[in-house]
Amino acid sequence: MLKTSNLVVGYKNTKATQIILSDVNLSIESGKMIAIIGVNGSGKSTLLRSITGVQTPISGEVLINETNINQLNDKVLASKISLVLTNQHISKNLSVFELISLGRHPYTNWLGINNASDKKIILKAIEEVDLQSLKHKKCNELSDGQLQKVLLARAIAQNTPLIVLDEPTTHLDMYHKAQVLHLLKEVCVKTNKTVIFASHEINLAIQLCDQIILINQTKAVQGSPSALIKNGSFNELFPKDLIEFDPLSKSFRVANKRN
Length: 259
Ligand SMILES: Nc1ncnc2c1ncn2[C@@H]1O[C@H](COP(=O)(O)OP(=O)(O)OP(=O)(O)O)[C@@H](O)[C@H]1O
Description:
- The protein folds into 2 domains: about 1-80 and about 160-170 and about 190-259, P-loop containing nucleotide triphosphate hydrolases (Rossmann fold, 3-Layer(aba) Sandwich), CATH 3.40.50.300; about 85-160, no CATH class.
- Helix content is about 30%, strand content about 25%.
- The protein is built from 8 helices and 13 strands.
- The chain has helices at about 45-50, 75-80, 95-100, 115-130, 145-160, 175-190, 200-210, 225-230; strands at about 1-10, 15-25, 25-30, 35, 60-65, 65-70, 80-85, 160-165, 195-200, 210-215, 220-225, 245, 250-255.
- The strands form 3 sheets. A 6-stranded mixed sheet has the order 7-8-9-4-10-11, sandwiched between helices. Strands 1, 2, 3, 5 and 6 form a 5-stranded antiparallel sheet that branches. Strands 12-13 form a two-stranded antiparallel sheet.
- Helix 4 packs across helix 5.
- The N and C termini lie far apart (about 50 Å).
- Pfam families: ABC_tran (PF00005).
């Protein structure tokens, strides 16, 4: 469903080019949940923005169902990818219901009016994310965690084959982090949608994701959690003085210092 070919991502201005990741060759199938994992500043958001057409890559290609995303106009792209980015501008004056309704924009007429079937999809998304009690509240009255769930419901209402989220569990407590990732997994399994998200929740990603894209020093390696554990990729992620990867429990633990 999504492929990248020799993708190089980064930042370019008139004076210099800063390469963040190079030789990124990803191959992502339908119905899979994929986490992008890497230390702060490693390039997770840059990669997410580049594979969704928000940021122009330095070189290489991003293909969605064999079509280069450059060739898709905004409306077509919005029917293929729903995107929840950090620092995305949203109008917090809208009610929860209104904000989630915006997910239907690729399918509505020029007046943006939702028909009965759109309303059904919006209400289902509200129910799936467990937001019934908040649907009439204004978004500026929500906690950060509640707003995070509203943005997830908007992405679900957009009903695209690919859902891409940047750190979807940032403001959530431990229980709600697991709840959101479980929900995303259910969306993949039940509807064959693909979910790609950047996250620092390594332990949850190892338990729930089909694949992980591990970013380490300008390289992005894709594999199943078990394959990445087996080939030792997680051992290289952080300096070993404070935490270390324990392959038995498949999680990071505080390093066992001997002195
Ligand atoms: N607009 C920009 N212009 C130039 N450099 C940028 C820009 N945005 C990010 N960078 C740089 O690109 C690198 C990767 O940043 P990015 O935000 O993609 O990392 P990240 O893995 O998502 O980080 P975090 O986990 O802290 O959110 C960093 O060195 C950052 O300073």
